[in-house]
Amino acid sequence: MPRIAGVDIPENKKIMYALRYIHGIGPKSADMILAQAGVDGQRRANELSDADISSIAAVIDTSFIVEGTLR
């Protein structure tokens, strides 16, 4: 199961929907993250390479307040 921002995301969902399982990320934020990371939102989470996951995590870390910090 892919892990982004300290959260296990569902691997069988499209990444544009799976990112929403992270507290603080909604539909608009998910689209912005994927655009900045250069990842196609229609791909399933289990199809992502380690490089894709790293670029998504880097965008989240630098641009968004999520999970524990947000709570």
Protein architecture, described:
The chain is globular. With 71 residues, it is mainly alpha-helical. The longest helix has 14 residues, at 50-63. Helix content is 46%, strand content 6%. The mean pLDDT is 89. It has helices spanning 15-18, 27-37, 50-63, 67-70; strands at residues 3-4, 7-8. It is built from four helices and two strands; from the N terminus they run ββαααα. It has a two-stranded antiparallel sheet. The termini are far apart.
Largest sheet: 2 strands, antiparallel
How much beta, percentage-wise?
5-15%
What's the overall average pLDDT, rounded? Answer: 89
Task: Report the radius of gyration as a whole number of Å.
Answer: 11 Å
Envelope shape: globular
Describe the strand arrangement of the main beta sheet, using strand numbers. Answer: 1-2
Number of helical regions: 4
Low-confidence stretches: none
Helix amount = 40-55%
* Total number of strands: 2
SSE inventory with pairings:
Layout: E1 3-4, E2 7-8, H1 15-18, H2 27-37, H3 50-63, H4 67-70
Antiparallel strand pairs: 1-2
Helix pairs in contact: 2-3
Short description:
This protein has 71 residues and is mainly alpha-helical. The protein has helices at 15-18, 27-37, 50-63, 67-70, and strands at residues 3-4, 7-8. Helix 2 (27-37) packs across helix 3 (50-63).
Highlighted features:
mainly alpha, 2 strands, 6% strand, globular
